[in-house]
Specification:
heterodimer, A: four-stranded antiparallel sheet, three-stranded mixed sheet, B: Neuraminidase, 3 domains, eight-stranded antiparallel sheet, elongated
Chain lengths: ~160, ~700
C-alpha cells in the first residue's frame, strides 16, 4: 500500500510541476506503469497524509470589484449567481443560486464571496429600477484547483468595468 | 376537461336509462344549469367543476334541487312537466307524476331543498298564489307525495333563489339578494332575518356541509362564500371561485364534509399556518386538472390539505413544486425589486408580501394585483412598501385564470407558491453561502482525540448562511440548517461560533431561533457567560431526532431512512453594524452533551469542555485545552495554530460545499469518493470537486 501511495504522489508531483491546468480527471490515480484495467488496491482514508496547514476547504474566496457604467445613470440592483445557461445572447439565470445580491452604489460594488469548488464560473446581472432599461449581464470564469493553490497571495478578483 | 368530466363522460349516453340511488353521501355539490338541464359536479374546496350529465332526460330546466340523505336521491322541479323529479345516480330524471295536489297547476319552482330531518321536499315561490310547499318523501307518511302549502308567498315574502337545510336543526337557510341571511322554520312557515352577510347578489346555489357551514354561490361571478352558521359568525368569507351562470341551482348532501380526504387533486400553499394554509383556515388552494396546463415553473403537485412549514411536502416528498418564482434582486424596503415568474401558460397573477411580519397577508399587502402574464420566464417589477419591516417573512404568489383572488380561498385552476423571503433595509447587500437556496454540509467524526472510522457521519448537518451588510458593515446574520444524520453512539451537541465576533456585539433580544419553524421558547441560543458569540443549537442531537425501527442510528444505515427531523433557523442581529469578514459556514463545532459519557478516555463526562472543530479552527473558550495533550492520534499544537488534526494531518471535521451525500455507516469516505485522496495529497490542486455526486460511488452512499 505504501508503495502505491508513493508512486501516486510522485505522479501528482510531476503533474503539478508541469504547470498544466487542473484536471478533474482521475487519470493520475493509477500507479505508474500499470495497465489501465488493473484494479487498484482500495485505499483507506487513514492511510492518507496531509500537511498540517492544508484545511480541506471545498470552497475559495473570490473578491468582487464592480463598477458598472450603465448603473451610474440609473440605479442598478446586482445579483451574482452560480447556475445559468446561455442561448445565443440570452442568459437564463437561476436566482436561487445567487451568492451575492446588492444594490449598486453609483454603479459600484466591492466585496468578497466564498464559492464552492464545483463552481467554475459565475454570472453577474444588473437589473435597473427603471423597467424600461434591460438588465445587463457579465460572465466570469473562476479559478479552480491548482490555480487557486498556486495563487497563494490572495483571492482571485472578478472585475466588471 | 377534468377528472369529474371523465367520469361524466362515462355516464353520458344518448338513451336515458334510469339508474339507482346514489350509493354514498357525496362530498361534492351538484349544479343544474341551462335551459335544457345539465348537471355539473362542483368541488366546493376549489370551485373546480365539470359536466356530469348533458342529457338528463328532459327537454327543459330542472331547478329547486336538493339531496335527500334518507333515500340518497336528488330531487328537483322539472319544468317540462311542471312536477317534481327524482334524479338518479346517473343524473337522469324520473318525473313524479303521482304527486297529488300540485298547485297552482303548471307552476314552476326554482327555490327548493330536502329537509333530511323530516324527509320532506320543500319548494318556494313568492306571490300570494304561491308560497312554501311541503311534499313528503316518507312512504310511511299519510302525506307521502302530497303537495301541501305551508304558507303563502305574500306572507313569507323573501327575494331568494335557493335554500339549504341545516344538517341537524331542521331549519332552512338562505341569503336574499340584499345580502340578508334568513332562517326559515318550514313547519310554521316563518322566517327570521339573522344578519347582513356583507355581500349582495343572486345566490342561485346554496349548500350546507356537515360542519354547519353554509355556502352561497353568486350567479354573477361564481364566487362561493362561506358562512359559519354553527359558530354564528355570519360574515361571508370568499371561499372559492367557481362557475358563474344565469340559471343556477345547487344541491348537495348536507351530511358530508366539503373536503374529500381522498382527493389530492388540489394544490395548497405551504407558508406557516397563520397565513391561511390549511383548508380549515380557508387556505389558498387551486384545483388540479388531469391535463393541467396552468401552473408556475415546471410542475405542480397536489395535496389532500395544506401542509404548512415545517410539514411542507416540498422537501419531504422530494418534489418541490415551488419552482416558478425567483427573486432577481433583494427586497429593499421602500424600493423597487424584480421577481422572475415562470407561468406555464397565460393567466392572472396576484401576490402578497407580509411586509409588517404579522404572520398574515393583509388586504393592503398585495404587491401584484390581477396582472395578466404570458407563458415563459419574465420579470415582474414590484414595489416593496415604504416602512416594510426588515427581516425574514413570507410572500404568496397565485396564478389562475380567475381575477379577484384573495390570499386565501379556492380557485379552480393554477397554482399557489409560498416563498420565505428577506426584506432588507435600503442599501443593504446580502452574501449567501453556498448560495441563496443551496446547502453546504458539515460532517464530524466524534472520537477525538482518537482516530475515527472516516465514514464522516457521526454528525452531519446541512447549513446555509446569509450575511446582511450596510455600508460594508454586518448588521445581521442568518443561519439555516438541518440535522441530516447522527451516526454516533455518543451523545453530542452542536454549536456555531461567529469567528471574531463578541457576545456583547449581538443583540440578544433580537435573536430569533426556530426549530421546525416553531420559535424555541424560553431559551437563548447565545451561550451565556462567554466573551465569544457562541450559539448552541442543540445540547443533545438525539433530543431532536430518532433512529428508525430496529435501527441504531439516524439516517446512516441501510434501511434506516427517514425524513429530516430537525430543521432550524437562527437570525442574529447585531446591536451596531460591525466590521467583520466572516464568511462561509462560520465555525460549526460538535461538543459532548453535558453529563453524557464520552468514552473511557475521560474520567468524567467532559460536556462543554470537549469540542471538535474543523481542521485548524481553534476551540471556543469553553474548551479545556488540557485535553490537547497528544493523546490518541491528536497532533493539535496551539502554538503553531494546528488544531483538530491527526498525526497525519487528517481532520475530525470537514465542511463539504454542497448538500453532500455522505457514506453510509462504517464506509470509508475514500471508498465513497475515490478522488478524495488525490485532493488531499495535492492539497486541493487536484480534483477540487471530489465531493460532487458525479464523483461518488453511489452504492456506498447513504440513501434515504
Amino acid at each position: 500500500m505504501k508503495h502505491v501511495i508513493a508512486l501516486t504522489s510522485l505522479t501528482l508531483l510531476l503533474t503539478a510541476c508541469g504547470g498544466g491546468p487542473a484536471s478533474e480527471s482521475d487519470s493520475h490515480t493509477g500507479p505508474l506503469g500499470e495497465t489501465p484495467d488493473t484494479t487498484p488496491t482500495l485505499e483507506n482514508t487513514a492511510d492518507l497524509r496531509s500537511s498540517a496547514e492544508f484545511n480541506f476547504d471545498t470552497s475559495r474566496a473570490i473578491a468582487i470589484d464592480f463598477d458598472v457604467a450603465q448603473a451610474k445613470t440609473s440605479p442598478g440592483l446586482m445579483s451574482l449567481c452560480t447556475v445559468y445557461t446561455k442561448q445565443g445572447d440570452q442568459y437564463d439565470v437561476d436566482y436561487d443560486s445567487c451568492t451575492v445580491q446588492a444594490p449598486l452604489v453609483n454603479g459600484e460594488y466591492s466585496g468578497k464571496m466564498d464559492v464552492t469548488n464545483d463552481i467554475n464560473s459565475v454570472i453577474g446581472v444588473v437589473w435597473f429600477k427603471d423597467p424600461d432599461i434591460a438588465p445587463v449581464y457579465k460572465e466570469f470564469s473562476l479559478e479552480v484547483g491548482a490555480k487557486v493553490a498556486r495563487r497563494g497571495a490572495g483571492p482571485q478578483t472578478i472585475v466588471w468595468r | 376537461m377534468r377528472r369529474l368530466l371523465l367520469s361524466g363522460m362515462l355516464l353520458c349516453c344518448s338513451q336515458v336509462v334510469l339508474a339507482d340511488a346514489f350509493n354514498e353521501c357525496p362530498s361534492r355539490a351538484f349544479l343544474t344549469q341551462d335551459a335544457v338541464a345539465k348537471t355539473y359536479g362542483i368541488n366546493l374546496v376549489t370551485g373546480d367543476y365539470g359536466l356530469l350529465q348533458d342529457d338528463m332526460g328532459t327537454k327543459s330546466k330542472v331547478n329547486a334541487t336538493g339531496f335527500n340523505p334518507n333515500d340518497q336521491y336528488l330531487y328537483g322541479w322539472g319544468y317540462e312537466k311542471h312536477v317534481p323529479v327524482r334524479i338518479h345516480s346517473d343524473f337522469t330524471v324520473e318525473y313524479l307524476t303521482d304527486v297529488e295536489n300540485i298547485t297552482p297547476s303548471k307552476s314552476n319552482f326554482y327555490v327548493g331543498d330536502v329537509s333530511l330531518t323530516n324527509n320532506t321536499y320543500y319548494v318556494y315561490r313568492g306571490g300570494e298564489e304561491n308560497g312554501l310547499f311541503a311534499i313528503s318523501l316518507d312512504e310511511s307518511s299519510e302525506n307521502f307525495h302530497k303537495m301541501i302549502r305551508v304558507v303563502d308567498g305574500k306572507t313569507l315574502s323573501l327575494k331568494i333563489f335557493d335554500i339549504a337545510f341545516h344538517p341537524s336543526n331542521g331549519d332552512a337557510y338562505t341569503v336574499d339578494k340584499f345580502g340578508k341571511l334568513h332562517r326559515l322554520n318550514v313547519k310554521d312557515g316563518t322566517s327570521k332575518e339573522l344578519a347582513d352577510v356583507g355581500v349582495t347578489g343572486t345566490f342561485g346555489a346554496v349548500y350546507f356541509d356537515v360542519d354547519e357551514n353554509l355556502y352561497i354561490s353568486s350567479n354573477k361571478d361564481g364566487h362561493i362564500y362561506k358562512i359559519s352558521i354553527g359558530t354564528e359568525d355570519y360574515k361571508a368569507k370568499l371561499f372559492a371561485i367557481g362557475p358563474s351562470s344565469s340559471v343556477n341551482d345547487g344541491a348537495r348532501c348536507a351530511l358530508a364534509p366539503v373536503v374529500d380526504v381522498s382527493d389530492v387533486n388540489v394544490d395548497y400553499g405551504d407558508a406557516p399556518e397563520s397565513y391561511g394554509t390549511y383548508l380549515k383556515d380557508n387556505g389558498a388552494r387551486h384545483g388540479l386538472t388531469d391535463n393541467n396546463t396552468l401552473y408556475l415553473g415546471k410542475t405542480v403537485d397536489g395535496e389532500s390539505d395544506g401542509k404548512p412549514m415545517p410539514l411542507s411536502d416540498d422537501s419531504s416528498d422530494r418534489n418541490d413544486d415551488e419552482d416558478g418564482v425567483q427573486f432577481a434582486t433583494t427586497l429593499q424596503a421602500g424600493d423597487s425589486a424584480v421577481v422572475m415568474v415562470e407561468p406555464s401558460a397565460s393567466g392572472i397573477l396576484s401576490a402578497w408580501l407580509d411586509h409588517d411580519q404579522n404572520g398574515a397577508f393583509d388586504a393592503d399587502e398585495q404587491i401584484i394585483i390581477d396582472k395578466e402574464v404570458e407563458a415563459g420566464k419574465q420579470p415582474i417589477y414590484i414595489k416593496v412598501p415604504e416602512g416594510s419591516k426588515p427581516g425574514s417573512t413570507w410572500a404568496r404568489f397565485r396564478l389562475s385564470s380567475s381575477v379577484g383572488m384573495e390570499p386565501t380561498g379556492g380557485v379552480s385552476d393554477g397554482e399557489v407558491e409560498d416563498h420565505n423571503v428577506n426584506i432588507t433595509v435600503e442599501g443593504s447587500s446580502v452574501n449567501y453561502y453556498p448560495s441563496s437556496s443551496k446547502w453546504s454540509t458539515v460532517v464530524f467524526e466524534d472520537n477525538w482525540p482518537f482516530e475515527g472510522d472516516y465514514d464522516m457521519n457521526d454528525l452531519v448537518a446541512n447549513l446555509r448562511t446569509s450575511i446582511f451588510r450596510t455600508d460594508g458593515k454586518a448588521t445581521l446574520v442568518n443561519i439555516s440548517g438541518q440535522l441530516t444524520a447522527v451516526g454516533a453512539a455518543y451523545h453530542n451537541g452542536f454549536g456555531i461560533r461567529l469567528p471574531d465576533v463578541l457576545r456583547d456585539q449581538v443583540d440578544e433580544e433580537g435573536i430569533n431561533y426556530t426549530i421546525n419553524d416553531r420559535p424555541v421558547k424560553n431559551y437563548s441560543p447565545l451561550e451565556a457567560g462567554r466573551y465569544e458569540a457562541i450559539f448552541i443549537l442543540a445540547f443533545n442531537t438525539w433530543s431532536y431526532v430518532s433512529a428508525g425501527e430496529n435501527c441504531t442510528f439516524y439516517r446512516t444505515e441501510e434501511g434506516c431512512g427517514s425524513d429530516v427531523q430537525m430543521r432550524f433557523n437562527l437570525t442574529i442581529p447585531f446591536k451596531e453594524p460591525i466590521e467583520t469578514d466572516i464568511s462561509g459556514i462560520f465555525d460549526p463545532f460538535l461538543f459532548a452533551t453535558p453529563g453524557a459519557w464520552h468514552g473511557d478516555h475521560f474520567d468524567t463526562p467532559p460536556g462543554r469542555s470537549y469540542e471538535i472543530h474543523l481542521k485548524n479552527h481553534h476551540a471556543t473558550e469553553a474548551f479545556n485545552y488540557k485535553f490537547m495533550n497528544g493523546s490518541g492520534q491528536d497532533a493539535s499544537n496551539p502554538d503553531k495554530k494546528h488544531f483538530f488534526q491527526t498525526t497525519k494531518g487528517l481532520p475530525w471535521a470537514m465542511e463539504v460545499g454542497n448538500e453532500w451525500k455522505y457514506p453510509k455507516e462504517y464506509r470509508d469516505i475514500t471508498h465513497a469518493y475515490p478522488k478524495f485522496p488525490s485532493f488531499v495529497r495535492s492539497e486541493g490542486a487536484e480534483n477540487p470537486s471530489w465531493f460532487t455526486f458525479k464523483n461518488a460511488v453511489e452504492s456506498i452512499l447513504f440513501k434515504n
